[in-house]
Amino acid sequence: MIDLKHMTIxxxxxxxxxxxxxxxxLTHAYLENIKTKNKELNAFLTIFEDAADEAxxxxxxxxxxxxxxxxAGIPIAIKDAFCVKGRETRAASKILQGHIATxxxxxxxxxxxxxxxxxxxxxxxxxxxxxxxxNSAYGPVRNPLDPTRVPGxxxxxxxxxxxxxxxxxxxxxxTGCSVRLPxxxxxxxxxxxxxxxxxxxxxxxxxxxxxxxxPMTNSVLDAEIMFDVMKGPDGKDATAIPVSKAxxxxxxxxxxxxxxxxxxxxxxxxxxxxxxxxxxxxxxxxGYQIEEIKLPNVRYAIPTYYIIVPAEVSANLARFDGVRYxxxxxxxxxxxxxxxxxxxxxxxxxxxxxxxxxxVLSAGYYDAYYYQATRVRELITRDFNQVFSKVDAIIMPTTxxxxxxxxTKSIRSPLEMYAEDLFTAPTNxxxxxxxxxxxGMVREDNVDLPLGLQIIAPKQRxxxxxxxxxxxxxxxxx
Amino acid sequence: MLSIEELRKLAGLARIxxxxxxxxxxxxxLDEILGYVGEVSKADVSSVPEVSVPDLRNVxxxxxxxxxxxxxxxxIIKNFPSSSNGSLKVKKILEK
Lengths: 478, 96
Hints:
The complex is a heterodimer of chains A (about 475) and B (about 100). Chain A contains 15 helices and 11 strands. Chain A is an alpha/beta fold and about 475 residues long. Chain B contains 3 helices and 2 strands, in the order αααββ. Chain B is flat. Classes of the chains: A alpha/beta (about 475), B mainly alpha (about 100). Chains A and B meet through helix 9, helix 10, helix 11, helix 12 and helix 13 of A and helix 1, helix 2 and helix 3 of B.
């Protein structure tokens, strides 16, 4: 039996190099675990039953002494939003039912080039619209730590896969919270790099000016390894930025970490704010300098976000019309085909955002909503940039509270769900890199639920985020 | 508050067929959401140009390496809800 608890890329790699088990055996262990747990957790929409064949190829390569990639034989789960060639890719929507991707997303292709083994497609909020993974057309995902609770969203299946020992690592997309929030709710690491650091080619777009690709892992080092594999410019994504020359890290004692004192607190669990203070203390004990900072426009992040996102959604999702792929509902003419296909193929939240986006972009409302929001977005970005002229990193909670029970927020108001993105959406608007690392537990109904700490750095200074994250979790010792 | 007619028009523009009872439910929700996102009007944006876009830069790449003709056709055609002899089949849009 391979012990999958707290398995990391580095450990699996070392074990396989020593010959303790093969990639095929490791893959089998994960597939078995998926089969046992997925009925309850619904983390995977598609399981690649033939993953062990892929693993065997890696084993053969190893035997023949071929050079292996850094993820050789590592079983990885993919969010259903990424095109994986030859596999059904649906973004957890009915409208893409039966859509078989004809090519690999760049992030997926890079994982393959590094000899990773893909385990399957993970469940999510439909088209990544949600913060709980309850909006899937294929049923909600459940949190492995407490199946009565949500795993967070939108990459809930990818988070549950890592937390539930159904994959060593996974990838997700993060438009407003979607990698970091589920990572926080499930007690794993979630990382969103600088905007454009990882190509989005082949990621089914939600809001293109905010969509990021990122890994979910069991260690900060693993997140860094995954990032290094996936990053880099891409001729197929014009927003992908070149890899910048690595800037040297300052010694810990010279590093200044900003602690915001003016974060919005309405609707925030007091234990979250307490946990942030404790995290700041822990970082101070580790030798970092903590400095109080202000981010006055961050309180506008959610309203800004929920104007820009629906606007971009209404444009990006116009392509799903039942003509070239996926669901097609026949009407009396082509226009009726479109409307019926989209009416039945899109779930409630998707329809809500498309209509909201259509409204904020319509003549007469454009200036008050969309234009105003893009200007406030600039203010939020400036807040970060100004603070980064004085500090090396900023810390913030990941979420306003721990994982909540399935059905409790979704049935009330959409606004309650939107508020979950309070601390994560600001860096999607600004494009700064941010990681969520587990920072403590709170007890609710006899279950210990994790909270997350976000560490944010200047653009293209991912190395700062990783360095502080490792130190915070005590990873440097191993 | 948005009227049901306005919502019907939006749904029409977005090409989404929705029953009236659902539009009615959406009416209240959109109203609540719009009230909330309207908060952005309180921010003082006088220091920001009227048309503000995130950092933009030109990206060029070599135009090279076209794939061989028809390499992906079969996979793409398989995804078509309706096809005929390797072509995408769509409804007639012009009436006589």
